[in-house]
Structures are given as structure tokens and as C-alpha cells.
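re the bet — no i am not wrong, look at it urself. input seq straight from the record:
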Amino acid sequence: MLKNSGKTYGERIRALREMQKLTLKGVASSVGISESLLSQIERNKVSPSIDTLIRIADTLGVDMEHLFKDYRQQRTVSILRKENRSRLEKDGVVYEQLSRLIDGETETAVEVVLLELSPGCRKGSTQYGHRGKEVGILLEGEVELLYGGISYNLHEGDSISFDSTIPHTLINHTDKRVRAIWVMSPPKLNFFSDW
């Protein structure tokens, strides 16, 4: 169970909920979990998934990093087992969280995802970017990156890095699935809803 030098994240969730005069039932319903599970999370009896913590933070109106703001990592190694990865499929794009390194300094934090694009799918925006840097390594397939109005074609084995503040979109024009490892720094704290 993760603990911080002040409150555990469960205690912080309970304090935020009570400060806002929200009931266990109301928050659990908004998050999409049982009242019993939320109670166990608040009492640090279970370790919730990252996506559950994200939904709790959203419901309480705070960034997820707020839940861990006093946390100081005691271990130097973080292992995320394959069966415990957060995974989301949205509009033909699969996001699977491989790692998230947050050391208390948002600017130096890193998030890594396995990204899959089905044939004909795209992700990103031609209108806006977001703060940070990104690195991508194409594992399978071919993809086009539209970056600030310029097109770049990437093939299996290619890697790319860029400033995320420039609008960028990945497009799979082929009839084959694209798989890539994608690294973002700082992390997009709610990468499921933002992408």
C-alpha cells in the first residue's frame, strides 16, 4: 500500500470527500464503483487501479497528483504486472499504461503507454497540443505523424521525439494494426479522457 509522509492517499480521499460534504454513496456512484469498495480505498484496505483513482480525483475536483502530493517513494523500483495494466479502447485506438514515474516533481515525471491504432484510425489533434515532450518508438506497421502542418512517415523500428505543445496527430492509413511505445513527460494525468 502506498503511503506518504503525511496522509495516505485513502485518508486524503476521505478528507476531501468529507470537506465537500459528499457521501460515500454519492462519490461511489459518480466513480462507478461500489460504496463498499470506496470505503475500503479510504481505509487503505485495497489498492485501486490507476483509472479508478483518476475517476475519484475527477469526482472530487482535484488532479490525481494532489492525492499523492506528500508522498515520498520508499522504493527505487516500481513494477507494474501485465495483468494489472490500465487499458482503454476508444475509437479504434488502444491505450495500455505500461509505467508511470512520479517523483513529486511534475516536470520530471514520465508516463509510458503501449499505443495501438486500428486500420484507418487516428489520435491527437490538428488544432491544439499540450505541454511537455513525447517520444515514440514504432513496433509494428506504418503511421503518419502530422506535426504543426508537416507530415512525417514512420515505419517499423523508427523512433521520433517532439515538443508536445505543437498540434500533432498520428494516422494509420494502412490496413494493418500499428503498435508503438509512447513516452510522455510530464504525464497526461488523465490520459484516457484527454486523448
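see?? The chain has six helices and ten strands. told u. also Residues 9-67 form a domain with the 434 Repressor (Amino-terminal Domain) fold (CATH 1.10.260.40). so pay up
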